[in-house]
Amino acid sequence: MTLTKADLIDSMYNKVGVSKTKSTQVVESLLEIIKETLENGEDILISGFGKFCVKEKNERRGRNPQTREDLMLDARRAVTFKCSGVLRNKINGKGQGSNNSPLSFTGKKK
What we know:
The chain is of the alpha+beta class. The protein has helices at about 5-15, 20-40, 85-90, and strands at about 45, 50-55, 60-65, 70-75, 75-85. The chain contains three helices and five strands. Helix 1 (about 5-15) crosses helix 2.
């Protein structure tokens, strides 16, 4: 199951107890801050979660798979994510408590 923006908003509404409108504003604001930071080429480190990094990709040779025609792919930036050891352990069921977060991905109260 994929966690959507609507799921995040519902989860915040159910767990934190703020209104849907306020939950929407908080989630939208957080995502906007993340997008702006990455657009500026800056990395984002969220302790206990992971790190989003902007990587510079050089121009490179490619090939159209349908026509087999060689072409040059433009230089670009890509975002990568590396999860923290804490998150990796939670995902793999290792360490202390595999789910002690106040927010769950189901949007339901524990």
